[in-house]
Amino acid sequence: MGLQSTLGSLLFLLGLSGICAGFKQENCTHYSLQFDRTFSVPGDTAMLNSTLVSPDVFNFTAVPYNITWYDSKTGQEMTNQSGRILVRGQTLWFFNLQLEDDGEYVTIVRTPSRCYSQDTKLVVESPGDCGRPRKAEQTLTNGVTDTLNCPLKDYMSTLESYNITFQITWFRGCERIVDGEGRYTYMGPTKLKIDGVETDNNSFYTCTLTFSLGGMRGSVSETIEASVRSEYSLIPQIHEPANEIIKAEMGSSFSKWCRVFVRCVGRPDAYIVWMAGDYSFILDTEPDRIYTSELRSWKQKVPIKGVWMERMLMFSELREEHFHVNYTCLAQSNRGSPVGYFTLLPADPNIMVPIGSVLGSVTVLFIGSVTIFYLFKVDIVLWFRRAFPVLYTNTDLDGKSYDAYVAYPQLCAVGFNKEVEAFALQTLPQVLENACGYRLFIAGRDCTPGKAIVDSVEENIQASRRLLLLYTASTFISKRHTSSTSNNNNNISKSSDGGDNGEGKTSEISSSTSYDGSEDVYQDTRQQMECVTAMHRALMEGSLKVILVELEKISPAQLALFPESVRHLRKKQGAVCWWKNQSTGQRWRTCSRRRENEEKDGQDTQPSPSPSPSLSPSSRFWKQMRYRMPVRGKRAMYPEKTALLNV
């Protein structure tokens, strides 16, 4: 009995020892002690995290596993203890720490086939005066607004993953900092902003994190030793590239600057690097025809002190693989690392050259066509009339007897000239009637004897489709009839401006010229009547087209003496100039010039014979006349008209 009792006691002790040190007897893959330690003080809260749940250790997303925490000193498994310990997977929480909690704690991760272990160190130190004994160091910049960062980001991120709210409180030394009081402002959950940093901001600052987890309330603090320096370097500002899309030609060279401004006093804390695509660094060598230049920098004193820095990205030849890639400029610094990027895309096809060529050709063609039409308008229109007479209305059915009424100064009338008479009675009929087939009414040839002037003029003008007004410089003015011509001009102007019927025009002529039976008055009255009627119908009624035939060159001074209605019509539609068809030496002789010669020489001087002008219908003058004469069409009359038929 004594032997059996002794053996049983020995087996129990061995079994108990195996249970206590079971995690050490497992054949686990052991990882060395974590480099990062967790430092804390009594009464505070500490958080230990295992790093075994990592793809570098095992495929934790596909393989089931469980985590167990052990105290390496006792070998006991760490379990939840109210008010003291909380185990949440790979995180071990200590609340209300005590000095004896200092030590190493083991994490064992077990899978169906393997296990892994690792030690984590917790250091519990005696508290200092109003702060932690171990302090983080941060720098404040003198004379500017600066910030301090709370070093408890790991605690905050873990609590946020639990959806646990927390609160941050800042202290300077032992004195609590109130948010918004003085120069201090709480910036978000982790930063303390200090406006206008001064040298007396050299101090200890403590951020305290308070929260509730698993029914337990805890707090953890971290102390910062802040030092103020006169030299500073703020976060870089990237001015170029500006997150843009750039198009470039395939096969061409291309370059782009990265320009960064660092606001600083002293040496800037920044460095520029170029990256392509998946943030692979581009060096200053030349792989794949892409490389970077040396870093350049220069100082700026006004308006803001700082340093400009730039580095160029260069492509010796753009290839297909260079497009649709983001090229990023990274400005690295301790204050922050902003980025700016651009994307290269192939340039759109250059359609401006063919479009410009087409537009240029169209423009040249249009200008050329307009120029040709302007220069050869008369020839083009005459050819069109001759080639397509069926498009024009047959004027034989319009009730008119004559194509044109020819008005000119007749014998002993104001401005009479034998050359004018010869032109009216011989030249015009020879070309327009004999060669071109027009029917003309010529006052000195076709008048019915004994018929009243007013009736004859009115009747024959109304029976004509055009009125040819032949004139020279003296047609509307002469020395012998200065006052009479002046009155006649006024009457013509009044008639063209305000007359509205044949009776009004007759009364105006009767009031200005009294018929005494003489041939002079008869001819003057006819001339006035023809002019007044023509101007009235052309300008007021628009029922008659007047063709001005200018037989000699008119100077501006001579033109100023013409009736206003004639000057207006000449300015509006121009005149067909017979004198341009004459030789340079030929001149028209007027009655006034002949009278001057008679007074000077005491005898009648006969005009010198003039060279015969061209009587060919294809000459320029006769083309102008035919262009203005009625169209001899063959189309039957219809009420509708088109713009083409009015050419």
Overview of this protein structure:
There is one protein chain. The chain folds into 5 domains: 101 residues, Immunoglobulin-like (Sandwich); 96 residues, Sandwich (Immunoglobulin-like), CATH 2.60.40.10; 114 residues, Immunoglobulins (Immunoglobulin-like, Sandwich); 34 residues; 259 residues, Toll/interleukin-1 receptor homology (TIR) domain (Rossmann fold, 3-Layer(aba) Sandwich), CATH 3.40.50.10140. It contains 15 helices and 32 strands. The longest helix has 24 residues. Helices cover 28% and strands 29% of the residues. α8 runs parallel beside α11 and α9 runs antiparallel to α10. The N terminus and C terminus are likely disordered. By secondary structure, the protein is an alpha+beta fold. Strands 17, 18, 20, 23, 24 and 25 form a 6-stranded antiparallel sheet that branches.
Labels describing this entry:
six-stranded antiparallel sheet; Immunoglobulin-like; five-stranded mixed sheet; disordered C terminus; disordered N terminus; alpha+beta; 647 residues; 5 domains; single chain
- What is the typical, i.e. mean, pLDDT? 78
According to CATH, the fold-level topology of the largest domain is Rossmann fold
Q: What is the level 1 CATH name of the largest domain?
A: Alpha Beta
CATH superfamily of the largest domain: Toll/interleukin-1 receptor homology (TIR) domain
Largest sheet: 6 strands, antiparallel
- How many distinct helices? 15
Q: Low-confidence spans: pLDDT under 50, at least 5 residues?
A: 1-22, 479-521, 583-613, 639-647
What structural class do the secondary elements suggest?
A: alpha+beta
CATH architecture label name of the largest domain:
3-Layer(aba) Sandwich
Strand residue percentage: 25-35%
Report Rg: 57 Å
Number of domain modules: 5
Tally the beta strands: 32
Task: Tell me which oligomeric state these chains represent.
Answer: single chain
Proportion in helices: 25-40%
Quick one: overall form?
A: rod-shaped
Head-to-tail CA distance between termini: 147 Å
